[in-house]
Amino acid sequence: MSDPKQDSHDVVRVERDGDIAIVILNRPTRMNAVNGALRQALIDTLGALNADTGIRALVLTGAGERAFCAGQDLDEAAEVSWQQIVPWLERQRAMYQAVRDLDKPSVVAVRGVAAGAGFQVALCADFRLTTPESRWGQPEVKAGLASIVGSYLMTLHVGHTHNVQMSLSGELVSGQRAYEMGLVTALHAEADLMPAALARARTLAALPPTAVRLSKQRLRAMTQPGFDDAAVAGIRAQLECYADGEPQRVMARFLEQRNTR
What we know:
Elements: E1 12-17, E2 20-25, H1 36-51, E3 57-62, E4 67-69, H2 74-79, H3 85-100, E5 106-110, E6 113-115, H4 117-124, E7 127-130, E8 135-137, H5 149-155, H6 160-169, E9 173-174, H7 175-181, E10 186-187, H8 190-205, H9 209-244, H10 246-259
Parallel strand pairs: 2-3, 3-5, 4-6, 5-7, 6-8, 7-10
Antiparallel strand pairs: 1-2, 8-9
């Protein structure tokens, strides 16, 4: 597997706007896909900001115009052997948990694609703002992986019919459709997206912090057992998928096609 310390500097950047932290996934040439470096940097960054008393709210976004996060980096995923599945998915789980563990309000601003791991990071946040043209989804089945953790997270936002359609088809839906389904909090024109996200964050930051923290802790407690169960079920399912060889075959074909373009 690729070294999680590789290019760890700058893969997650932080900008401050008063008591608002703007956290930027910063691998724009790879559509901000999650690799070991970005995963660990995001966990560390969110943990530090959660402990920073000068920060009252966070905005998460992605660098560039193509994606918030296009999901798992397939170069890394293609290198994973079945013996590495458990620690690899535990680190992925820790990344989602770092978003869930925030005691401060979090707003995600999505331009372009939020898919797979990026989709799930967004679903772990409190508010999701996007454009009508953005693309959202859970395409794991197309890569030979079972849709488990993402399917659970969707139960917190949409009904079973939408969940089944997105989890089993792997198809992405537009930001407009995601809003209509209940996955997205609000729609904005692209030029208005970041100003709207910052305005929402400032409004949340102005609320009494103890009440916000305790409300978030209770919301987390209500959903933690389901999340933990999904994470364990996801490990079992992906072990079986990798043992069958489907992910390896699908990703090898994709990487071969990409490298011959």
